[in-house]
């Protein structure tokens, strides 16, 4: 009897239900998500993108926010004809975006996060040997280049959000452009949300470019009639107005963590008809809390965010946007050799991006807390590239480690000013990271592997000789997280917080105060209730603990043995901590004069920040320079002037070249006494 055998249909069914990435059956959720994915504008361009990448090694892709480019284009690149069986890497300017997008793509591809799809950000590497697609911060890709200058494991590198023009992305432009000559199998995709595509196209020798439309609805722009004196209170008024408007979630752009948390508390304390639930969004927020902004709530969601919600993160359901018109940016002051965070006006391009967030799902409203005249006449057209307004010490260190010898003639997208470049080279020379021919020294090579500011990395290396590795690694970690001290707004609570902090205060060193607080937290079992009662930030302390463990791991891999027996003499130990700090921060030292402190390197007169617990000391070093209505230095420690000469004989050998001042004369007297 003839057998009726039908194999083909069964085989097709299996192909449809088995995930080729891990060989497991697709979940029900996978099929649910496909409908949403197929509705993304970028899906219409899949064949076109793949065809372009088969023919070309560089592609410039301009895609409106919400088009799906960040989640889908890297998946297109996993096509073996494009990536050649190698990995795909997509860079992001911010850790929040790298993590949240990796989570989303892992869900879409129905794989475990950290397996076939992973992410890598500073102090958090979530990848495995199976990882085929990695989302990482641009700074972390620069670090990978330090270990493997040809990054052989990647067949395709995508530079996403290139319009943000971070220092790391700008350096990657130059490094990858030269790498194209060495690696014929490498392909590069530059993705941007604004009209900088022409500049990128010209930089890559007229590479082909594509434009992907986004799904957008009209957005009504509402300007303030008069300039706002207090944008915080103005934003609260608009929130109250929106409470009476039709349904739709709200996105408020603020400048920083403290301001965001204050706004969240304010809105959540209001009685609202639409049951408003305010949620914060900023880069230092833990991953699980960031995730909350994507989840549905019983009421109207009000997301209060930094500029990361401009383009890096797409949140569905936003109908109302409140744009304060400001952003917090790092600005480098070559004269003082320090970076300061300044609140500054956004660009017109950023304002357009913010407004666009309101028109993703239906017609929206954008409330600009500035006048139309202010928009047209006061806001710059584009955001200034970070390369032109930040310290280059870290990035030059990375460039040297990668093997770029001629820093001055590197193929920059926008070359930084010679003054900023020279200051960075000088700083690295005096930190002993570069020799007099600007070659990387042994110390320079070591500190380039430590993912913190060069001055902190030098301090960490110095702590080995002073036998205070544990103490300094704790302090360095605490300086790399948000403030561990909570400052309430209410006067009564503020007094209680000050009283709690006073228990940990060391009147010779804010750095030791940080250390005391951390140690007390450890001694109390890292208890969140203890943190609450003592007005300290439990989240920041946990972050610091994680960073400390990683820093100690890096030192261990460098061959640093476990710390010798701790120095029992507490006074001596605290002195050695300050000496180690001096090794990294001798250029950020100041001398007490009439009216405040005079900075050693440029004679500027500043005040010690009110938050400091260091009493009036003749000589101090400091971590931060803060410019508000007055100029302050913050996080300070008292020092002996002799320590400055021990920390950098090279720098202080040239006292005759220092500007004449009371401080310079005092240093000369110290030098004579030492001789």
UniProtKB/TrEMBL annotation:
One GO term (biological process): RNA splicing
Q: Supply the EC number(s).
A: 3.6.4.13
A molecular function (GO) held by this record is: RNA binding
Q: Which UniProt keywords apply?
A: ATP-binding, Helicase, Hydrolase, mRNA processing, mRNA splicing, Nucleotide-binding
Name the SMART domains for this protein.
Answer: DEXDc, HA2, HELICc
Q: Where is the signal peptide?
A: none
Key word Hydrolase present: yes
**Domain named Helicase ATP-binding: residues:** 50-213
- Domain Helicase C-terminal, which positions? 234-403
How is this protein annotated for GO cellular component?
spliceosomal complex
Listed under catalytic activity are: ATP + H2O = ADP + phosphate + H(+)
Q: From the UniProt record, list the coiled-coil ranges.
A: none
List, alphabetically, the InterPro entries matched: DEAD-box_helicase_OB_fold (IPR011709), DEAD/DEAH_box_helicase_dom (IPR011545), DNA/RNA_helicase_DEAH_CS (IPR002464), HA2_WH (IPR048333), Helicase-assoc_dom (IPR007502), Helicase_ATP-bd (IPR014001), Helicase_C-like (IPR001650), P-loop_NTPase (IPR027417)
Q: Return the protein name.
A: RNA helicase
Q: What is the originating organism of this protein? A: Entamoeba nuttalli (strain P19) (Amoeba)
